[in-house]
Amino acid sequence: MSWVRTPLAAPNIHQGSTEHPKRITVPRAPQAALPSSATAKAAASARIFAGTSGWAYTTWKPAFYPDKLPSKRFLEFYSLQLSSVEVNYTFRAFPTPRMLENWLAATPDFLRFSFKAPQRITHIKRLSNCESDVAFLVAVLEPVRQAGKLGLLLFQLPPNMKADAARLTTFLAAPTLRSTGAPPIAFEFRNETWFCEEIYSILRAHNAALCIAESDDLATPEVHTAATHTSFRLRRTSAYSPAEIEAFAARFAALAKERDTYIYFKHEDEPSGALNAVAFLEAVNHQTRQD
Question: From CA 121, how far away is CA 125, in angstroms rounded?
Answer without folding.
Answer: 5
